[in-house]
Request: fold
Amino acid sequence: AQSVTQPDIHITVSEGASLELRCNYSYGATPYLFWYVQSPGQGLQLLLKYFSGDTLVQGIKGFEAEFKRSQSSFNLRKPSVHWSDAAEYFCAVGGGSGNTPLVFGKGTRLSVIA
Amino acid sequence: GAVVSQHPSRVICKSGTSVKIECRSLDFQATTMFWYRQFPKQSLMLMATSNEGSKATYEQGVEKDKFLINHASLTLSTLTVTSAHPEDSSFYICSALARIKGGNQPQHFGDGTRLSIL
Reply:
């Protein structure tokens, strides 16, 4: 069965510090992996995606993620966090032709302190 | 970029009312749209998959007669919560997949609808 685990429910970092949000997945075939960000009361915005090719993918807002098949992981990173990055982050996995619904992790809430 | 518009953004209504939520792809055709539900501080749970011109496929535990889905065109899918009750209060989000031959594309999400049933 497909599943996504985000081990950290809540992370607090100082502004300017580096960030890594963890994501592990379980999927029977080649996974398509996504990171979305959600601000309170808002929809989801796609940060980045991995379909194939280079395992280090660059996204918007300075985020990047690395696909590690051996670890079934797709961790999200940012070298220097800004206060505006405070939000909920969701990792998701899909597959096949892409015409499949996504399975989401439970999310990690990021708080940024001065 | 691909834009998905979801309307209304917020609804407050009395118990027993039926509420329709629209999901539109503004600058692309979407053969498939998905409807998710999100409870407070929880993740998104898939409710149903909506394909243009055919019946929606509902996830286990989702009442088809309660949550009516219509995907009448390549740019519009609607979710109607019939005879809504307080337990239907939630955040509903749609997503759409662009109609592109071959290749892979991500789902594009609407901004969600906050439904509150009094």
Q: What stands out?
A: The mean pLDDT of chain B is 89. Chain B touches chain A through 25 residues (CB under 8 Å). The first strand of chain B starts at residue 4 and ends at 7. Chain B has no helices and eleven strands.
